[in-house]
Amino acid sequence: MNATLINIGDELLIGQVVNTNAAWMGEQLTARGISLQQVQVISDEAEAIRRTLRRAMDESDVVLLTGGLGPTKDDITKKVLADFFGTELVFSQQVYEHYTRLSERFGREVKEEMRRAQSMMPASADLLHNAMGVAPGMWFEQGGRVVVSMPGVPVEMKYIMEKEVLPRLQARMKGELILYRVLCTAVTGEPDVAARLEDFENRLSPNMSLAYLPRLGGVRLRLTARASVRSEKEREELERQLDEGLREMARLLGDVVYALEDITLQEAIGRLLREKGLKIATAESCTGGYLAHLITSVPGSSDYYLGGVVSYANSVKQQVLGVSEETLRKHGAVSEPVVRQMVQGACRLTGADWALATSGIAGPGGGTAEKPVGTIWVAVGNEKEQHTHLLHLGKNRMSNIQYTAMYALDMLRRGF
Fold it and tell me: What is the arithmetic mean of pLDDT over 66-91?
């Protein structure tokens, strides 16, 4: 089964809004064995929608559209689809009642004419419930092809995809089973990972494939197996092959692996901290709170994260964290002795078992010949002992901040 994505909206074409929908949808389809043929971004124009849809249906089994389902005049997708499939717009009591309930829940006054207009749906469409918004998804079938239209708002599109579209598509795949495992690495690049796995990848059976999914500070690896399964025994054999392959990958990659599932580094660390009953704190300079943000992005992080200090100014390093004036004068804020004392101060202030500290020159300015932009010290430890590392990064400020935070987290992981 193959698919085409059509993302509708002038805001996507001009770069006013980043097309995150396509990336997420492509990943979800691929993980389920549905081959993504192409992604089209088009304007809110009837002819553009018709032309692109006609071509996509000639080339793909499934066409997924997002955007153009709102209440404003430029949202024309619903009417264009009704015309395209030779049907009419009819009033949906189900959509009307859902819209009314949402309006009342959020205390919004919506004109009756707008509620009724939003409730007019193509008669031939199978409506897909949207618990996150007003506009339902619309499922059409013609000539063995499936066309699905969904809102462009990411949270709404994801809900409809996960609850309705993906399960229905998998049910149409005629017994073909696609299973996969994910392995995550930290603070290592794709070339290094690929070199370590070269022989393993060359030995994979024809029904298995390995995908590299790089991200800042690491690589996700997805091992996929496909087969026409007729019995539970055959399924179990496919599962066994995947598990065996995952274990071999972990052995070959060693300590750069932080999880044998698709979770973030901060989630993995949270689990470790809970298991060991440890508390942590942060003391940040150049990362400006981003490290604390990553830690607290995990639900339940209050179980192990006590708090942090963003000590951007030297005066805060001294007065709050207890970094000595002499150390700052002798070594400068971007130095190993300073991050050691920042760790000590954070533990002393909060009572944490471990603390993470960062201090550096994130850029794009502020560097010197001795300490150029991208010079960043990281420390992890407690009042008695600290482990440090000097990073030499590039000139992109945000990349430097993000990578430093990930590196600090990985130092904490390795400290266990």
Answer: 85
